[in-house]
Design a protein that fits this description.
The complex is a heterodimer of chains A (113) and B (115).
Chain A lengths: L2 E4 L4 E4 L4 E3 L1 E4 L5 E7 L5 E7 L5 E4 L2 E4 L9 E3 L8 E8 L7 E3 L3 E6 L1
Parallel strand pairs in A: 2-12
Antiparallel strand pairs in A: 1-4, 3-9, 5-6, 5-10, 7-8, 8-9, 10-11, 10-12
Chain B lengths: L4 E3 L2 E4 L5 E6 L6 E8 L3 E9 L2 E4 L8 E7 L2 E6 L8 E8 L8 E3 L3 E5 L1
Parallel strand pairs in B: 2-11
Antiparallel strand pairs in B: 1-3, 3-8, 4-5, 4-9, 5-6, 7-8, 9-10, 9-11
Classes of the chains: A mainly beta (113), B mainly beta (115).
Chain lengths: 113, 115
C-alpha cells in the first residue's frame, strides 16, 4: 500500500541555518506530493505541492522537488527563521487510494535565535 | 472565505458521556474529511465524504464513533459513549473536488479531553 516515511525529529537549528527534511514515499501509480505545516495550536496548512515528476513546489522560501527515480520529495530552505518553528508533514495522494492523503509521521522543527 | 470552521474548539467531558464535534466546510467544496491526531498514532483519517456520501469509514475506530453529513455545509462526528483513550485533537478538512492534486484545507481542530 501507499506510505510516506519522513526524517525523524525533532530537528533543532539556529536561525539562518540551511534546512533539509527528508521524505520518501511508496505508491502505486503517479502520486501527487504535498508538504503541510502545523504551527502550535493550529490545523495543518498546505505549504507546497507537486503533481508530477521533476516538478518543484515552492512557497515562503521552502522548496521541494518531485524525484520519481528516488521516490523522494525532500523539503529545503536556505535560511530558516524562528517563525518557521512548527511540525512539517509530507503526504501523498494517489488515485489508487481514492485520492485520500497519506501522511508521514511529521517532523518537529525548532529554530533558535 | 472563512475557511473550515470547527466547533467547539475545546471539549472536556467525563467518560461515558456523548460528544458531538461539528464542522462547516468551505463553501463549494464537495469532499470532507475527519482526522484524529495523537502523539502516539500521529494523524489518522477516520472517514471521508464526497457529495455528502460516506466513501470510506475504514478508519473509524469502533462502533462508538459515527459521522454524518446531512448537507453540503455541515458534518458531525459523534462519540457515544466516550472513553479516556478518545482524547485527541480532531480535525475536519475539505477539498474542492475529487482530484489527485487537489489541496485539503484543514480546520483549527477540536481538542477533546475525556476524563
Amino acid at each position: 500500500g501507499n506510505s510516506v516515511t519522513q526524517m525523524e525529529g525533532p530537528v533543532t537549528l539556529s536561525e539562518e541555518a540551511f534546512l533539509t527534511i527528508n521524505c520518501t514515499y511508496t505508491a502505486t501509480g503517479y502520486p501527487s506530493l504535498f508538504w503541510y505545516v502545523q504551527y502550535p495550536g493550529e490545523g495543518l496548512q498546505l505549504l507546497l505541492k507537486a503533481t508530477k515528476a521533476d516538478d518543484k513546489g515552492s512557497n515562503k522560501g521552502f522548496e521541494a522537488t518531485y524525484r520519481k527515480e528516488t521516490t523522494s520529495f525532500h523539503l529545503e530552505k536556505g535560511s530558516v527563521q524562528v517563525s518557521d518553528s512548527a511540525v512539517y508533514f509530507c503526504a501523498l495522494s494517489d488515485i489508487q487510494g481514492a485520492q485520500k492523503l497519506v501522511f508521514g509521521q511529521g517532523t518537529r522543527l525548532t529554530i533558535n535565535p | 472565505d472563512a475557511g473550515v470552521i470547527q466547533s467547539p474548539r475545546h471539549e472536556v467531558t467525563e467518560m461515558g458521556q456523548e460528544v458531538t464535534l461539528r464542522c462547516k466546510p468551505i463553501s463549494g467544496h464537495n469532499s470532507l474529511f475527519w482526522y484524529r491526531q495523537t502523539m502516539m498514532r500521529g494523524l489518522e483519517l477516520l472517514i471521508y465524504f464526497n457529495n455528502n456520501v460516506p466513501i470510506d469509514d475504514s478508519g473509524m475506530p469502533e462502533d462508538r464513533f459515527s459521522a454524518k453529513m446531512p448537507n453540503a455545509s455541515f458534518s458531525t462526528l459523534k462519540i457515544q459513549p466516550s472513553e479516556p483513550r478518545d482524547s485527541a485533537v480532531y480535525f475536519c478538512a475539505s477539498r474542492a473536488r475529487e482530484a489527485r492534486g487537489e489541496t485539503q484545507y484543514f480546520g483549527p481542530g477540536t481538542r477533546l479531553l475525556v476524563l
